[in-house]
Amino acid sequence: MSSSKKLLLSNKLQLAGTVWLASDIHLGPDTPRTWAQFSAFLQRAGEEADALIIGGDLFDAWVGDDVALKAPPEWLAQALAQLADTGKKTQLYVARGNRDFLIGEKLCHRIHATLLPEPALIHTDYGTILFTHGDELCTDDRAYQRFRSIVRNPVVQKLFFSLGTDLRERIARMARRRSMQANKTKRAEIMNVNAGAVKDMFMNYEIKTLVHGHTHRPAIRVFDLGQSGVLRHVVLPDWDYDHSESPRGGWLHIAADTLQLVSTTDHDFPIFERP
Ligand code: LP5
Ligand code: MN
Hints:
Radius of gyration: 18 Å
Strand order of the largest sheet: 1-6-7-8-10-9-13
Bound molecules: ligand LP5, manganese (II) ion
């Protein structure tokens, strides 16, 4: 059995009933309108979903649970309180994104959530889905993959956590600046998932439904393979009601006979059917 399949034997979840997945909310001190929308969503999720998965980049940047939870600024204290309320009402899972990959068990404990391993094989009433944030599928973006391998290294992270709050925040701001600078010159297609990397996920993990976020290109792609069945590649929407001309947000609703992207605006998400 390949190592990836062994990995998945440990990374699996059984989530019955209605499962909602949302990612890329990018909450920070300057996202009050996005927070208002996401807060309303969290209220609904607590009442209507049996499980909620927040699939990475819940926060716009994160320099460590210790710093964030010691004396959270007002915007974060409010978010933590409502996330905790949601975590008491429904099964709450949180995955790491490329901005908030430093979230840990302390945050999850605070909001009554479980850290979602990645990738995660999730058995739902709809069927089995494989979830991952999606940044690791952008394999054409070599600069990013190099950056990712450095900052995901546990020794580098241990070093980072040994720094004081101010220095960590300065490094994070510098990383954000460098990233935004770099993104201005990168071709759009390399900041998207690589088709081969997506195909490998379907093949290696023997799944029919892959769900990820990160790329901010929400859609459902349906591949009808005839005898071999139907594959679905779902990209979750990002949320932005503060900095974009066209506000956006939404989530994936999964139930026994439903796999549907729900928009928080009147702008629906595309479904592409491929033979
Ligand atoms: O994030 P976004 O949307 O702008 O672009 C992403 C990729 N960029 C990133 C970098 C994050 O924005 C930085 C967040 C910092 C969080 C705090 C952690 C601080 C360091 C922790 C150390 C353990 O994810 C971007 C992709 C894009 O998505 C599309 O997929 O292209 O990738 C890049 O831009 C990578 C650049 O090419 C190189 C980034 C250089 C950053 C150098 C900072 C060095 C600090 C490292 C300290 C060890
Ligand atoms: Mn992301």
